């Protein structure tokens, strides 16, 4: 992106460069819905990580809820739904 | 032809397609296994768990072993399965896993280690990755979770109509 902040405060100790990490964090940020609209790149990395965690938790919860609904549907259905599923595989 | 019902099946090259196929196949198996008699609460809970496990399993197996999170997830599922059958094997495997998780993740003070640690807890196999890898795998894991959610929603929509 444009105008990276200077990162001279610390000599590179690690194998991983800060630029690499900044790139990865930016990519991650673009994946999170809350951040997509917000164009500013002033969001701190730890903030991005926090929002990433929340987003993953939400997705996990969604999978839980959908699994529950699916198990209900499978239970209530007699053959017909199973046949539908089967037809999807053809 | 029937694949047109699920939009994701129209594009054969996507992960979502493979994922949908695997998940539907797993559901089919589950729906055939179900008892015809009225199910108890514990049966229902069991089925819920099985469907959820099938969701994660189809995610991981459609991605394949090239991704660390998928490998870790498959390992976890396999451990759980073999745990029911043979206690001996499980003992050996969990030993290996705990040894690996003991390796401390690299300290990255800029990121705020608290968030980093919770992210490691959320991404399968996250404890074993270096920080770059963790960020990389997280992105891919999120994309796959989204695909899985989409597939499940599509199936439910089909059911409800």
What features would you describe in this structure?
The complex is a heterodimer of chains A (90) and B (161). Chain A is mostly helical and 90 residues long. Chain A has one domain. Chain A is built from four helices and no strands. The longest helix of chain A is centred in the C-terminal third of the chain and has 32 residues, at 45-76. The relative contact order of chain A is 0.07. Chain B is globular and about 50 Å long. Chain B has one domain. With 161 residues, chain B is mostly helical. The model of chain B is unreliable at 1-12, 85-105 and 107-111 (pLDDT under 50). In chain B, α1 packs antiparallel against α2, α1 packs across α6 (131-160) and α2 (41-63) packs across α3.
What attributes characterize this protein structure?
heterodimer, A: 90 residues, mainly alpha, disordered N terminus, B: 161 residues, 6 helices, 0% strand
What is the fold's blueprint, element by element?
The complex is a heterodimer of chains A (90) and B (161).
Chain A: H1 18-31, H2 33-37, H3 45-76, H4 80-89
Chain B: H1 15-33, H2 41-63, H3 68-85, H4 87-101, H5 113-122, H6 131-160
Would you kindly provide a brief summary of this structure?
Chain A is mainly α and 90 residues long.
Class of secondary structure makeup of chain A = mainly alpha
Task: Report the sheet with the most strands of chain B, covering strand number, pairing sense and barrel closure.
Answer: none
The helix/strand class of chain B is mainly alpha
Q: Helix segment count of chain B?
A: 6
Envelope shape of chain B: globular
* Terminal residue distance of chain B: 19 Å
Helix content of chain A: 55-70%
Rg of chain A, Å, rounded = 22 Å
Strand content of chain A: under 5%
The helix/strand order of chain B is HHHHHH
Q: State the low-pLDDT regions of chain B, or none.
A: 1-12, 85-105, 107-111
Number of domains of chain A: 1
The fraction of residues assigned to DSSP E strands of chain B is under 5%
The total strand number of chain B stands at 0
Helix content of chain B: over 70%
Give unreliable regions of chain A as ranges: 1-13
| Biggest chain pair interface | A-B, 45 and 54 residues
